[in-house]
Design brief:
It is a single chain. The protein has 2 domains: 10-252, Glutamine synthetase/guanido kinase, catalytic domain (Creatine Kinase, Chain A, domain 2); 262-350, no CATH class. It is 47% helix and 16% strand. The chain has 13 helices and 10 strands. It has helices spanning 44-57, 61-67, 80-88, 94-98, 134-151, 183-187, 191-199, 232-260, 262-278, 284-299, 307-316, 319-326, 332-350; strands at residues 22-31, 70-74, 104-108, 113-117, 123-130, 156-157, 161-162, 174-181, 203-206, 219-224. α12 crosses α13 (332-350).
Length: 351
């Protein structure tokens, strides 16, 4: 099965509740089978067995009735660029992209569902939606989980809940997260205090691509830290409340900038658009920061673009997408030139 790498993922739509601050919502469920060791201890034949079982399960009517057509993509058949693109689209983890052996991912047609196979756990069922849609994501994930659970024998303990490779996931096996865009809090120097306060109430703050990555372009991921001792509904409710509070604080910071430093804000947005629309060399880091400023301009009404267009560009400027688009591997300098060209053409068409 070949990867449709140009397909746009559902989360890129840029529409929905609180989309001016919340870029996407993700629900991830960690599940393991009772008769197989955790992936870190599996033999190659056991990895292959896990993939066969998963491939058989996703073809059952009860599964397709929930998720639609699902495709299993063996990661060992992909190029390194294709695997990295899946990371850039937030469909698999960096760890799975780097892993060797029999690993795979299952994708729905709109890429709202992705299921990692043989990562840290046998299955990591993910639903990724645009804007603040944690409850909807949970309902969809729960339905798919139930359907798969009818086909696969999950490792479950009546007292502890779902058994997982990492103790922090034991219990519900649920990790809920949102990607948030916080330029207002960063520019008003409030982000440190606000994000530190989140960690004190059990909310983890991570970078653009999750655990172990750095924040880039004022984008952060916030998620629940533990799953043991809490119900799924409690986890979703707590994170939703935190995301709503964060969105309010970000909007207040943006309004403060508009009132107290209007020329600074308009100049920052204007300069970002000018460089992106007319520049000839762009590194990925600079492009992402400029897109952050552009997204701020769209959200505050300074630019007539859509948030969906900005989300698409966030993926298209990444190294793997660029090299797949141009059909060859490139050195950093070549990528910077091609990135600038792509952005110029994209903004010209979007104008």
């Amino acid at each position: 099965m070949r990867l449709n790498w140009q397909r746009e993922s559902r989360w890129m739509e840029g529409e929905g509740p609180h989309s001016d601050v919340v870029v996407s919502s993700r629900i991830r469920l960690a599940r393991n089978l009772s008769h197989l060791p955790f992936p870190g201890f599996m033999t190659p034949s056991q990895e292959e067995e896990m993939i066969r079982l998963a491939e058989s399960a996703i073809q059952r009517d009860r599964v397709t009735n929930v998720a639609g057509k699902l495709e299993l993509i063996p990661l060992w058949e992909l190029t390194e660029l294709e695997k990295q693109l899946l990371v850039e689209k937030h469909l698999i983890s960096p760890e799975l992209a780097r892993a060797r052996g029999k690993k795979a991912v299952i994708l729905s047609e709109d890429e709202a569902f992705s299921i990692m196979i043989n990562e840290e756990d046998h299955l990591r069922i993910q639903c990724l939606l645009p804007a603040l849609r944690l409850e909807e994501g949970w309902e969809k994930s729960d339905a798919l989980d139930d359907a798969l659970g009818e086909e696969l024998d999950y490792a479950f303990n009546e007292e502890k809940g779902y058994l997982t490779a990492c103790p922090t996931n034991v219990g519900t096996g649920l990790r809920a997260s949102t990607m948030v865009h916080l330029p207002g809090l960063m520019l008003t120097r409030q982000a440190g205090e606000v994000l530190t306060a989140l960690t004190k109430i059990g909310i983890a703050v991570r970078g653009l691509y999750g655990e172990g990555t750095e924040a880039q372009g004022n984008f952060f991921q916030i998620s629940n830290q533990i799953s043991l001792g809490l119900s799924e509904e409690e986890i979703i409710k707590n994170l939703s409340a935190a995301a709503l509070r964060l969105a309010d604080q970000e909007r207040q910071a943006r309004e403060l900038l508009k009132q107290q430093r209007p020329y600074f804000l308009e100049d920052r947005v204007g300069r970002a658009y000018g460089i992106l629309a007319h520049g000839y060399i762009l590194s990925s880091q600079e492009a992402l920061q400029l897109l952050s400023d552009l997204r701020l301009g769209v959200a505050t009404g300074f630019l007539p673009l859509t948030l969906g267009k900005i989300n698409q560009l966030m993926v298209k400027i990444q190294p793997s997408y660029l090299q797949l688009l141009y059909g060859r591997e490139m050195n950093p300098w070549e990528r910077d030139v091609c990135r600038a060209r792509l952005v110029r053409e994209f903004l010209k068409e979007a104008a």
